[in-house]
Design a protein that fits this description.
The structure is a homodimer. The first copy, chain A, is globular, with a radius of gyration of 20 Å. Chain A is built from eleven helices and 14 strands. In chain A, helix 7 runs parallel beside helix 8 and helix 9 runs antiparallel to helix 10. The first copy, chain A, is α/β, with parallel strands linked by helices. The two termini of chain A are about 20 Å apart. In chain A, a hairpin with a 6-residue loop joins strand 11 and strand 12. The interface between A and B is large, with 60 and 60 residues. Strand 7 of chain A pairs antiparallel with strand 7 of chain B, so a sheet runs across the interface. Bound molecules: 3-isopropylmalic acid (IPM) (2 copies). One 3-isopropylmalic acid sits at the interface of chains A and B. Chains A, B: One of its GO terms (cellular component) is cytosol.
Chain lengths: ~375, ~375
């Protein structure tokens, strides 16, 4: 039977408890679809700091290197908030993981199911059928990693600077990911930049327009980032796929996630290059929401984002598309059947209000 | 009697028609409060391009230099959209005006009146009393003007870059503006940055924390920009004053404006230094919305943003606070009396649906 290796990094806050449930779902599809996974659990984030002082220990990197893909929970919490930024759980684990594994393509679905529009902050009449946007964020370039970055004294005062920088090839490869995704969906792509101000955005727009020639069926539109931030709150259902650079993607994908109504429902994938001779990617899969320390340990967190992260792992890194689909279908069914964790419940009599484990049971 | 000089730059799209109405309101407060204005009209944006090829002619700069403040309409439209970015109406007029006059402090109120929550995309139950946020955006620094900015060939491919850079003194002066504004309002300030990634944001956060010591009554909170983009859509009424750097301010103030429900209601001020020996600023005042070419010339645009821009001009640059207050009160009264332009109408029988001129009549 087929065997895959995965690294399991549960992390902090609700990470461990939603991870436990998602691994039960993975067990279930393994026996149903006839494959197995070797799982290597490793410390990350605050848990790793508490253990050995570093949010991303070498042993964790090794476990990831030996895997076909990383299943990640979430990191961070008040306990580590006052450490210097570089050594904090989020920053100190996520950025080095992205860079080390070249995870340049961040796919973040922003889905508001028609039955869950009440959970969105947006008026129901603006999103009568919910919406389904895919945000493709460039994840290893731009102002996050550009150099020079730092500070110095100039004319007797401190000056601090960052460099927003893109190479043509970096823009090309993320645009190909976005156009390919659009081909498999509604064939409409919005590329977001600030080409009226930024030189890096002018290049971004040029390259997007060029790459578009390879995908004549996809309709490409360019939006300025300020305009995109506006349209996302008023007309989220007008988007199909949205592609943008690292910093804009950070802001817009979070805005989109909040607008979708439940962060607890949204998985994400951070993909590197394709594996040699295959259509599969090395990637890292994690919920879009954070570690939610306020509700950790109470058994009430929504496990769906983590469970759908397993589905993305199966599809993009393990080549188990049928198992992925089965998970996605089961999640949709559980929602249809009325199962609701607190974050998506309205209190209506037709709902079955459940905790983390019961939601996973329903999906199973 | 007191005389002030103002430059009037109506611009494109709905600019001229809302400007006409706002000047009628200015006439009214002049006779009521016993002062006069000398108005120097000048071309800007597309209108200036059509006239002489440049969006910001020297004659316009001179008119502004000779004034106590600039009343600005709006610029841009499809006709000039395909010019190179540098020479387009928005970019080619706004950025040079900001730089030339050192307009470093952009004040953008984001107000959703309790009677107009229906116009906001956010669910009424999330904003039962509407909201009133003031966004303070740094306007002459950061990645907009930082150098180096451009492109070059490296290792055989094109690379494009921008520099996000802040001096301590630039951060200090905008923070003082924001803290002062907070002192005159709810005494709560949220400073938005990305200090977990950007060196310029680390300095920003340090300086904000230091400047806070001068304003012990103001409660300062720091938010990361991705989090701020989320909170603005879910809890806009949790903010009092928000301060941030240029690019984040561009994105967040537009998001906030959209969330407030009517761009047609929101004025803005871009302030430079205080005039010598006075508490007044040289500044430029303009609606937050754009030139709205789709409804230009139809007499249906909401003139309130332009009229409230006159009020800000009176308060911050001309020292006519009573006249400013009279205008703001009259606008509130017109809304209370049920006058509604199309952008804020619901169709309810109690409303008086009006056009641009009738709204100004109601305010007058
Ligand atoms: C923690 C932080 C460095 C990170 C980012 O900005 O990329 C986070 O906000 C995210 O989006 O994954
Ligand atoms: C037109 C553009 C250069 C400008 C900006 O980005 O500042 C505009 O979006 C604004 O906010 O006034």
């Amino acid at each position: 039977s087929r065997t895959h290796r995965i690294a399991v990094l549960a992390g902090d806050g609700i990470g461990p408890e939603v991870m436990t449930e998602s691994l039960r779902v993975l067990d279930a599809v393994e026996s149903k679809f006839g494959f197995t996974t070797e799982r290597s659990e490793a410390l990350v984030g605050g848990a790793a700091i508490d253990d050995g002082g570093h949010p991303l220990p070498d042993a964790t990197i090794s476990a990831c290197e030996a895997s076909d893909g990383i299943l990640f929970g979430s990191v961070g919490g008040p306990k580590w908030e006052n450490l210097p930024p570089d050594t904090q759980p989020e920053r100190g684990a996520l950025l080095p993981l992205r860079k080390h594994f070249g995870l340049f393509a961040n796919l973040r679905p922003g889905v508001c199911l028609p039955s869950l529009t009440h959970a969105s902050p947006v008026k129901n009449e603006l999103i009568p059928n919910g919406f389904d946007v895919l945000c493709v964020r460039e994840l290893t370039g731009g102002v996050y990693f550009g150099s020079p970055k730092g500070r110095e004294e100039r004319d007797g005062e401190t000056v601090a600077f960052d460099t927003m920088i893109y190479k043509r090839s970096e823009i090309e490869r993320i645009l190909h990911v976005a156009f390919t995704a659009a081909m498999g969906r509604g064939k409409r792509l919005v590329s977001v930049d600030k080409a009226n101000v930024l030189a890096s955005s002018v290049l971004w727009r040029e390259v997007a327009t060029e790459v578009a020639k390879d995908y004549p069926e996809v309709e490409l539109e360019h939006l300025y980032v300020d305009n995109a931030a506006m349209q996302l709150c008023r007309r989220p259902d007008s988007f199909d796929v949205l592609v943008t650079e690292n910093l804009f993607g950070d802001i817009l994908s979070d805005e989109m996630a909040m607008i979708s109504g439940s962060l607890g429902m949204l998985p994400s994938a951070s993909l590197g290059s394709k594996k040699e001779g295959s259509d599969l990617y090395f990637g890292m899969y994690e919920p879009s929401g954070g570690s939610a320390p306020d509700i950790a340990g109470q058994g009430i967190a929504n496990p769906i984002a983590q469970i759908l992260s397993v589905a993305m792992l199966l599809r993009f890194s393990l080549g188990e598309a049928d198992a992925a689909q089965a998970i996605e279908d089961a999640v949709a069914k559980a929602i249809d059947d009325g199962y609701r964790t607190g974050d998506i419940a309205t209190g209506a009599a037709s709902e079955k209000k459940v905790g983390t484990k019961e939601m996973a049971d329903a999906i199973l």
